[in-house]
Amino acid sequence: MRAIYITHTGGPDVLTHTDIDAPTPKDNEVVVQVDIAGVNFIDVYFREGIYHSPTPFVPGFEGTGRVIYDPQGEIAEGTVVAWCDAFGSYAEQVCVPRDRMVAVPESLEPHVAASMLLQGITAHYLTHGVYDLSEGDSCLITAGAGGVGLLATQMAASAGATVYSVVSSEEKVALAYEAGATEVFFYSDNLAEDVRRRNGGVGVDVVYDGVGKATFNESLEAVRPRGTVCLFGAASGPVDPIDPQVLNTHGSIFLTRPSIGAWTAREGEFAMRAQAVTRAVTSGELNVRVGAVYPLADAAAAHRDLEARVTTGSVVLQVS
Ligand code: NDP
């Protein structure tokens, strides 16, 4: 089968389009013919070796396609599914854990189905888990026009929260407002001060920071006493180690570094979040913006663009 193969970690050029053997499923897995694979920032961390996988490996975690073989005979061949948490999704075939996929409603556009789960579930657990937003709350979202950012903005706004979004270009400003942001800012050293000024002079209840190194200090400054800083990613690089005393000086704030794994680990939790996302997307309540589609062979270009901050919304690879 055709796949993107990584024999050593590094820059986008290590993403090699080649022929490899099709994977063999374990008992709890289903073999799927991949139509479209989602591209996520976590794929960059694995490609770079920041997150570790033994080499060689096929990157990618999510996508949509048709079931071709279920060793347990439960899922009919041809069933259209979407999944996340199936390592090796940048390929014509992937083995998907049977408890990490959903059936795709016929009305769902395939590019949307391919990229709704990883970012959608993340946005869901951030806004309905790490800090349960409700009417009257306020939040700050960094990379507000990215894949997770646009979805988290919509979920936060529909929960009734005031949403401050941070982005890097005029195009992204417009997208963040369209998603429901109350006020959109460019990154700056005065970010926290600007946000506080708009928020009645006080810090926000929660900061969702997926940018990391470049924004973390402003995130600490922007939160109210006893508020929550949720550092959920490192698009600009990992945050330097901190002294816990910093949490005291900012007013007894909470700091968490969550993962989608931990926030879908409880019995039924993945299904609950995945179904909530799928339902909201299908009903039109949640809009997944597919910002760019690349052929599988151009996975390196997709990574380059994601890292160059030129993409908006989600990014997908057309596999077959
Ligand atoms: P995005 O579509 O948000 O792309 C990354 C964005 O980060 C860019 O578009 C850019 O937006 C912003 N950014 C800021 N600084 C940089 C930089 N130096 N280099 C590159 N990008 C930068 O990606 P995803 O939606 O896939 O992921 C967003 C974040 O969420 C990532 O950090 C990812 O690791 C994290 N994540 C965490 C999960 C978890 O469970 N913990 C699960 C899924 C994602 P702008 O131009 O506006 O700054």
TrEMBL record:
Signal peptide extent: none
Ranges for domain Enoyl reductase (ER): 10-317
InterPro entries the UniProt entry points to: ADH-like_C (IPR013149), ADH-like_N (IPR013154), ER (IPR020843), GroES-like_sf (IPR011032), NAD(P)-bd_dom_sf (IPR036291), QOR-like (IPR047618)
GO molecular function, one term: quinone reductase (NADPH) activity
Alphabetized SMART domains for the sequence: PKS_ER (SM00829)
Protein name as it appears in the record: GroES-like protein
Top-level taxon in the UniProt lineage: Bacteria
GO cellular component, one term: cytosol
Pfam family, one: ADH_N
Keyword tags: NADP, Oxidoreductase
